[in-house]
Design a protein that fits this description.
The structure holds three protein chains of three kinds. By secondary structure, chain A is mostly helical. In chain A, 80% of the residues lie in helices and 0% in strands. The N and C termini of chain B lie far apart (73 Å). Chain B has one helix at 4-43. Chain B is an all-alpha fold. The longest helix of chain B has 40 residues, at 4-43. Chain C has nine helices and no strands. The longest helix of chain C is centred in the middle third of the chain and has 30 residues, at 84-113. The chains are: A mainly alpha, B mainly alpha, C mainly alpha. Chains in contact: A-B, A-C. The A-C interface holds A 132, 135-136, 138-139, 142-143, 146-147, 152, 155-156, 159-160, 163-164, 167 and C 141, 145-146, 148-149, 152, 155, 158-159, 161-163, 165, 202, 206, 209-210, 213-214, 216.
Chain lengths: 247, 61, 216
């Protein structure tokens, strides 16, 4: 049992240690290119002026908020179905990152909405369901922190994550199903994107940059979580030792 | 549209600013947590690099 | 077996009275906050009563599985070989009867405080009778997940509220449609029924799964 415990996380630690510099470099490059394109390649919008540049933050944040929850749902399957040792770690590490991206999606959307629609917030289907996603992230984070037994916490959070996954298709299709203030899908559609390539390409590059950033943060958080579990285990073993010596 | 530029620029700056702050805080929080765990591991006498205990343990579970 | 658990929980259930009192307190303080304008109260009345019912349900959920978990009878029930889904069904049903049914019975009286028309009150009773079981089952998920946490009550509410939102939306929409002329009552009402059924199924299996983890 002890060898199995060491093998996978250790291999993960060594592989991720070698990947990290490459990923960090790629992330930095992507952001530099993306920001350049966002400000110097994409033209100011006919109606929105320079505020269209907020889109290059808002849309990738929103995509990543949903992508992160999907990663957590897949990790939940890994915990419940395959009992993979790293699945718990992946889910726990992803939650705060997803919460931050959701917060950014809401904040940048609000800052974009004020000049565009004249209001900071509206209770339409998409904004409401993204706010609900933010609440779900916070609930899961709180649940993780409430338990001493992290294995039990992992299983419970996995089940709860899967129950909440229904929100993701609701967010995606909310602008199609209900008449909302938020604009309908213009990139990920069956017929292909409808926005102009001079705006589409900077958006895709920024999306890639954000995705790489997520990967870097997720791996870093997983590495820290593995170390934290190791510390906890060693402390418990040390406490057992002291108990036995005292007896 | 030129008179719109300075007015809306504030929203753009605020958006990019809040993004930088939030992601920076996230990076900082992860880095601090990692530093803390490494310190704890070293206090317990174990090395971080390969995960194998510095002192071989025997006779346990 | 299910019947036995149901009857036992019915006898034990004491949360009905405090839930009712909380509901009354809520309905009383709303006009203090909002102002005594009767038209305004009539407009927001259905929503206020629905939200009050939701909060009252959430209030007592903490105790749904806690007592059985702490004295070990949950472990016994699991070990006895009976499907835990049946136990959950019995306990949630008993919870609904002891805690929520009094609320629904009290709605006509509270409706008077908020200046609601009889049609609105009738619609409220019907939509609540149909929708609150869904809320109870959704709440059971939170109760099961937090059963091993000593002070899990607030966390339970945070986890469950997002899941309860659709039922709340359609409950209030259907009620309001009953007394607003062009709005159709049937579509939101049918969706409400569907949500309760869906919530019951998901709640049943998710709670059972969570309880299995908690007693492992």
């Amino acid at each position: 049992m002890q060898i199995i415990e060491l093998a996978n996380p250790t291999r993960f630690l060594s592989i991720s240690a070698r990947l990290m510099p490459v990923l960090v470099g790629a992330t930095a490059v992507c952001f530099v290119v993306g920001l350049y394109m966002a400000f110097f390649v994409a033209p100011p919008d006919y109606q929105q002026g320079e505020t269209v540049r907020i889109m290059f933050l808002h849309v990738p944040s929103a995509w990543l908020a949903m992508f992160c929850y999907t990663i957590m749902a897949l990790s939940a399957l890994g915990t419940l179905v395959w009992k993979h040792p790293l699945a718990d770690v992946s889910a726990k590490a992803a939650a705060p990152i997803g919460a931050v991206f959701t917060f950014l999606a809401l904040a940048t959307g609000s800052l974009w909405g004020k000049p565009m629609w004249g209001t900071w917030w509206v209770w339409d289907a998409r904004l409401t369901s993204v706010l609900v996603l933010f609440l779900m992230y916070l609930g899961l984070i709180a649940l993780w922190r409430s338990f001493d037994d992290q294995i039990a916490a992992g299983r419970l959070c996995a089940k709860l994550t899967l129950v909440g996954f229904i929100n993701i298709p609701i967010i995606k299709f909310s602008v199609d199903w209900w008449n909302t203030l938020h604009q309908p899908a213009s990139v990920v559609r069956l017929d292909g994107p409808t926005i102009h390539s001079s705006i589409l390409w900077p958006l895709l590059v920024m999306a890639l940059a954000f995705s790489l950033l997520f990967l870097v943060l997720h791996l870093a958080a997983m590495r820290t979580e593995i170390l934290r579990r190791r510390v906890d285990r060693l402390r418990r073993l040390a406490a057992d030792d002291r108990l036995q010596q005292g007896a | 549209m030129l008179e719109d530029l300075p007015r809306h620029a504030g929203y753009v700056i605020a958006s990019y600013g809040i993004t930088v702050v939030a992601i920076g805080a996230l990076i900082g929080w992860i880095a601090l947590a990692r530093r803390r765990q490494i310190r704890l591991l070293e206090m317990l006498g174990h090395s971080v690099s390969d995960g194998r205990p510095a002192i071989p343990r025997g006779g346990h579970d | 077996m299910i019947g036995a658990v149901f009857l036992r929980d019915l006898r034990l259930g004491g949360a009905g009275f405090i839930g009712l009192t909380f509901f009354l307190a809520l309905v009383t303080i709303i006009p203090f906050g909002v102002g005594p304008d009767l038209n305004l109260l009539a407009r927001i009345g259905p929503a206020v009563l629905w939200i009050g019912a939701l909060l009252s349900i959430l209030l007592g959920l903490d105790r749904l599985f806690r007592a059985d978990y702490e004295d070990g009878s949950l472990d016994l029930l699991l070990a006895s070989g009976h499907a835990i889904e049946g136990v959950v069904l019995a306990k949630v049903a008993a919870y609904w009867v002891t805690t929520t049914l009094p609320l629904i019975a009290a709605v006509p009286f509270f409706g008077f405080f908020l200046n609601l028309e009889p049609v609105a009150i009738g619609a409220l009773v019907v939509t609540m009778a149909v929708g609150t079981p869904g809320l109870a089952f959704a709440g059971a998920i939170g109760a099961a997940v937090t059963v091993s946490l000593p002070r899990g009550g607030l966390l339970l509410a945070v986890i469950i509220l997002p899941i309860c939102i659709p039922i709340l939306i359609f409950g209030v929409t259907a009620t309001r449609a009953a007394f607003t002329d062009p709005d159709p009552f049937l579509p939101p009402f049918l969706i409400l029924i569907a949500l309760t059924l869906f919530g019951a199924v998901v709640g049943l299996f998710a709670s059972a799964a969570a309880l299995r983890t908690a007693t492992r």
